[in-house]
Amino acid sequence: MSSHYEPLTTLSGARDAIVSLAFSAKAKFVSAAGYSGVCVWDLSTSAPTPLPHMLFAPQNPKYVMTSSAWVYFQKNKRHILLLGSMRGDMILWDYRSDIKSFQVLYRVPPMENTTDEILSMDVYEQDISPGRVGRVVAATASRRITVWTLSSSGEFSQVFSTMLDENINPKTVRMCKITRDIFVFPFYGGEILCLDYKTGAIKSRKSHGPAMMGSVALSNTSNKFVAYTGKNFQLYRLTTLEVLKTFSAGTPVVMFSKTVAFGESDNIVVGGTDRGCALIYEVNTEEILQALNYPRGGLVQPTITLPDRHLVAIAGSTAQQPAEVILFEKLIPPEETSSLSLPTVTHRDVITAHPPADFIFVGFYLPKKKTWYWAILSVLAVLAFIGYHIFPQHLPQVCLFCCHSEINIDGRWCRSPHSIETRNQTITGTRFRKVWVLTGGPGIFTGQTWIM
């Protein structure tokens, strides 16, 4: 099995520079947003998905999309694509599985109806469990940070909207996957803010960050971030802003913001270049593992990790020419798939008992109407315990019966756990990796947008 990424498919349809790529939950869809509007492909067929009508108008900020993100509600199996425009519109598209197309769910115009480009967008959770709501944050060119909640029924509500000081010009916003607070990374100045997720109040300031942060990716555990700092990609510890690693990107041909992403459980970093390729770095050694070639130049690249494979998508962002999206794949050996583990969070980084949002654990529950079934099991367990003291000679038979007793619940045969292995399987469940989404590309600078 290859240890390198191999080309999987090429997706066509974008007619101009792509600014933002995003994978949906479980990589069902991939979207490309930019100067030609939006394209979405179903990755099971590589076919384009029908979308609401949008004009092709690269010179009209209303139809130029600068940011994108996905959420998925497990409760009703609902995929929603969130888009931010150069004019400042927040747009939500809802996928209708019955007609296999997207429809407009919301379109929130910019405040005061003035142009206010959405520079960056992030979500707290992409794959949302029943009973939970989604959380979305966006940063605009006017230094405004806004947070919304989104329910599985489609209700989109603003939590707060706050204006930052004049000396803070946000370029990237990221939600902490543990506390839900918002980290604000400016393009220049090096002052990183942490905002309260409920009120938007500033909880902390760190003024000794990188002088330039063209693009920023946050690790799964929110304890590290990697940023493009002008010539290189650098890995920092978020709590202390200590430089941990430097990934050489070479001398840039043009001074635009190179995009960057984590991948493979934060073991690799994928960085864009202006030389027609993306570079994959090994985090521990800083070594370049592979170059992913793109024939047209400029790149945008998010990553996603699935239970059985890794995916990387790259796309061109050169103005006034078509831009294909190229998907690369690396299969995970079966023995590695079964041994994937949670990232480690030390007390130095974050002190919390809450698991990273990068993993979704699927357990089980006991239906109230069926509790008498479980009561029978409890009685049998008590009898086994009593028998241990009164009839020790009969203990093996009693335990054998209790450990292998089966009960029919709603047409399903349930067997009580009888080994450490099956108990671990019951409480561990399954996990899915989430998506990292980046924006930028040659000739495209989404802070003060311009085209080469």
TrEMBL record:
<keyword id="KW-0472">Membrane</keyword>
<dbReference type="InterPro" id="IPR015943">
    <property type="entry name" value="WD40/YVTN_repeat-like_dom_sf"/>
</dbReference>
<feature type="transmembrane region" description="Helical">
    <location>
        <begin position="372"/>
        <end position="391"/>
    </location>
</feature>
<keyword id="KW-1133">Transmembrane helix</keyword>
<keyword id="KW-0812">Transmembrane</keyword>
<protein>
    <submittedName>
        <fullName>WD40-repeat-containing domain protein</fullName>
    </submittedName>
</protein>
<dbReference type="InterPro" id="IPR036322">
    <property type="entry name" value="WD40_repeat_dom_sf"/>
</dbReference>
